[in-house]
Amino acid sequence: MKAGRKNLIAIICVFGVMGMTGAAFAAVPLYRMFCQVTGFGGTTMKADKASDTVLDETVMVRFDTNVRGVPMTFRAEQSTQRVRIGETGLAYFDVTNTSDKPIQVRASYNVSPEQTGPYFQKLQCFCFTDQTLAAGETRQFPVQYFIAPELATDREAKGARDITLSYTFYPSVDAPKA
């Protein structure tokens, strides 16, 4: 091989490695954005206003609470709610810091079955924002939501009448290290 051709192959390889490295770093934020826009993977949608249409069909919404790596208790005041499709629901969650120090936490959520994610619309939520709880503090967090009427006509999600909204609290990314 000639030196010019070897140099061209080396340059292509370097750009290929740089491109793959850039794609690896961009994959997580791009996937998160894709899920939030499409509701893929059970990601719920944020709504600006309540539904104008309320159907006679009902859905049972179950609330699941989890804690990862923080000294706290987290529970839903009601484990289930039956709501009409399109009707606004309101659920309350109680959170207690069980340690003797303040903690900074953040909650994420998911909906299952995943095909119902685009239809679970939140009007108010405590998720994805840092919450600081003083030592021993108990706080109540509301979630206001509705199930979009389009659920009733979606072929894949049409029969889904049990939906689970699952929240997990974990240490905030910005929380000071112990």
UniProtKB/TrEMBL annotation:
UniProt cross-references to InterPro entries, sorted A to Z: CtaG/Cox11_dom_sf, Cyt_c_oxidase_assmbl_CtaG
Pfam families, per the entry: CtaG_Cox11
UniProt cross-references to Gene3D superfamilies, sorted A to Z: Ctag/Cox11
Membrane topology classification: Single-pass type II membrane protein
UniProt topological domain (Cytoplasmic) ranges: 1-6
Keyword set, alphabetical order: Cell inner membrane, Cell membrane, Copper, Membrane, Signal, Signal-anchor, Transmembrane, Transmembrane helix
Single GO MF descriptor: copper ion binding
GO cellular component: plasma membrane
Annotated function: Exerts its effect at some terminal stage of cytochrome c oxidase synthesis, probably by being involved in the insertion of the copper B into subunit I.
Record-stated family: Belongs to the COX11/CtaG family.
Annotated protein name in UniProt: Cytochrome c oxidase assembly protein CtaG
Gene: ctaG
